Amino acid sequence: MSPRSAAAVVALAAILAGWGATRSSATADGRGQGFGYLFPALQDRPECFLPYAADGGLDPGVQELLKALAHEIDAPSPADGESSIPAGFTYLGQFIVHDVSFDTTADVTRPIDVPTLENLRTPALDLDSLYGRGPLDQPYLYERVERSDMAGPRLLSGHRLNPADLPRDAAGRMTGRALIGDPRNDDNLIVSQLHLAFIAFHNAVVDRLAPRIADRSALFRAARAEVTRHYQWIVLHEFLPTIADPAVVAAVLAEPCNEFCTRGAYMPVEFSMAAFRFGHSMVRRSYAIGDSKTASFGRMRNEFTFRNPLTPGVPAGWDVDWRRFFWTGPRPGRANVAMKIDTHVTAGLATEISLLRAYAARIPSGQCAASALAVPRLNREQLLAGNGESVLRQRDGLLLERTPLWYYALKEAEVLAGGERLGPLGSRLVVEVLVNLVRAERGSILDPPGWRASAGPRPGEFRMLDLLCIGGRLSPCSQ
User: Fold this and answer.
1) Cβ neighbours of residue 171 under 8 Å, at least 6 residues apart?
2) pTM for the full predicted model
3) How many distinct helices (H) and strands (E) make up the chain?
């Protein structure tokens, strides 16, 4: 490891040691440990933040500047805006963030008191977004045991109008809302179908384990543990090396556990409100869903408005052909690649709200975050390259000197990695948080270290294609 990389690891280890001290208490029903700052010491350094007004409120001038920057970000992507990343990783990222973070804060017109924010998800890669609170507490997510009113270990799947859809409340003429652990996984066609794929994988694991585990509760616990560990394997060994610098992933996985593993996990807002929002830039305007079906992103959210209880969910015949979203080797025909990770975002993805929320939450600038992690800063020429230059120069270069962390991470990926992956700071933030959330989870694949995936074609190999294959959501199965 280079001296600079070693310095970055040491700096981050010191920062992560304070995670537990800044978290809020658990919610009344035991879900989540709240939000906090990854860099609490920076809160005392005003040069790391966009200024507030004299009365302590948000500065209207800064708000207008951020709105102007959002307008630049929402500009159409250049002709060469496609990456080589399979588009499924865009929505796997959405599924992951829904598993670790759920912030219902909607007001971005006043300062946000971060330590008081409630996280409706546990800050762990434990699939509570899939399982909810389990079959005893949320039995309506699970199949009933035959000749009984008791919930069994299998998750519900499909409904009367479409067996290849999420389960839905079918009390009325329409199918209604999805019966799933997190309603946000019904946000669009692709993440909805991805959630269904995890349901199918879980049920396949239950069916495989059932002949040797008679007790239903024990069967559910065993199946959930196996599914969760294979999901964690995918996150650490497929997702992260795809979207971040593989060298950073390898370095972080090789490091010993730090004080974060004293079970003081919480959700850093620098991750949830900034760095991990890189996926917004990967969203395409349209997708090839199957052999003869193409849908614009707008259509996937508007025509298939799954969150609306008066719509019928995924229409029959619109199930996703996952061969077009995940693959190994050469890109298949009509396969979907993600857009580059850069400062261009498909319109309609709340760019303005993202920037304003980060301002209200006092998330430090990209420059200060880079210095805190001993990562080289972008220089002025790099920040001014491409779109956004005119806005960055306004107000004596305020955003050029105190660049919003989300925009900084996108610009870094654009100028240093060609949009094919996150840059040094973005990689470090995203990889460190996700790896340490896994380390802090009791019984995870890193607690103790050494667990290896066993459900794939060979020991120690397991990818999204394998999960889809085992769950019967990939045809023909390429395993």
Assistant:
1) none
2) 0.91
3) 19, 8
